[in-house]
Each structure stands twice: as structure tokens, then as C-alpha cells.
């Protein structure tokens, strides 16, 4: 059996970007860990104000850039999804899924489309923003489910979805895929009933809460930010 997926960030790891010419590179740190952080299978939310470095952090965890200092460890198959679906606008959603999946996986994708009220016969370019996000969400779910232990990193996948769908999706995340580490950047914390932890960036430090403060993750977020 494959080991459980996990995500580990050592204490003192710094995330940011490098500027300047190769012989005079300068590092700009956006966020650093104030504690060692380990997340196992479950739903983990990354919520922080605009411009604090969430996307930079997620891209670094996905291996698309290096941390400025420190070490990261991911165990499992890492899937990273940026905030917008990149696909040929002329193909129908159904054709898109047929290109990715076969048999049982395709049936799961079609089932999920039905649950989320996505019309598979519309060209991707003619879908609304929210409906395009559903295509991305379904792709992510099925890809993660097909791997033996996945680390699923998603950047604002709920943007553009209506309130009912947001609640539906966050419930689905909480109830399914206990073999997947999901780290999700979002701003829509009010729609989350269940999650396993919350990460936030406050004053340049990455903070991690594994239990709720009070009766909501929103309250936990406010406490960590204060
Ligand atoms: N390679 C780079 N070169 C220059 N600036 C950069 C680079 N990477 C990130 N930044 C800057 O760092 C800041 C944080 O960016 P990032 O996209 O990680 O924030 P964010 O928290 O995801 O923001 P938002 O919530 O608005 O999506 C931004 O001001 C961005 O322009």
C-alpha cells in the first residue's frame, strides 16, 4: 500500500521571488513559516488577504519555483491547478472529459457534472466563468481520485461559483477523498462547514490552525489575523 500523502514545510522556510539580472539577483520574501507545518489527508484551507503571497506559496509547493530558503517535502502525486481552466474554447465539456478519462473515470466525471448542474454539451469557450470552474473542479477531483494518494493544490477554484455550488463543492471535499491532501486557496470562507485545518498569512508569517476557534473557521481566521 502506498504511504499516506503529506505536505511538510520546515520551520524558517521562506517563500517569495527573485529579481534582477543573474549576477545581481535579489530575493524578495513574501511569507515565511513561523512553525513547522505538516498536513496529511483532508481539507486544508489557505485564506489570506490579497497580495500576501498565497499563489507564490502554492506554486512553490507544486515545485514550479524554489523556496528562498528552507525545505519542503511532498509525499504523493502532486496536482496543481491555477485559478483558470486552460482548454481549447471550441471543444465541448464532454469531449474535454473524454480526452482525459476513460470508462469508470469518465462515468465519474459525467456523474459529477450532473450533480453540479454542468451542461456537458456546451463548448468550453461559451460556458460562463462559474461553469468553466466546474470543469476544472471535476478534472481535479477525478485526477486526484485516480492517483494512489494525491496532494491537490488549487488556487481559488470557487471563484465565480454561485453560493449553492460553493457549499456543495466544499461539502464534497470534506466528505470524500480521505486519501488526498487538499490545500485550497479561497476567499469564500463563509461557505465552509467542515475542514481539517486553516492556514493563513499574517504579517508575513504563515500560520496554521488545526482546530477551530469558536464555532467557525471564519472566527479562527479572524483570530489568526489579529
Ligand atoms: N516573480 C515575481 N516578480 C515580481 N513580483 C512578484 C513575483 N511573484 C509575485 N510577485 C508579487 O508578489 C505579491 C504577492 O503575489 P501573490 O500572487 O503570491 O499573492 P496572492 O496572495 O496570491 O494575491 P491574490 O489574493 O490577489 O491572488 C504581488 O504583489 C505580486 O505582484
TrEMBL record:
Coiled coil: none
SUPFAM superfamilies attached to this UniProt entry: P-loop containing nucleoside triphosphate hydrolases
Cross-referenced InterPro entries: AAA+_ATPase, ABC_transporter-like_ATP-bd, P-loop_NTPase
Protein known as: ABC-2 type transport system ATP-binding protein/manganese/iron transport system ATP-binding protein
Span of domain ABC transporter: 7-226
Annotated GO MF terms: ATP binding; ATP hydrolysis activity
Keywords: ATP-binding, Nucleotide-binding
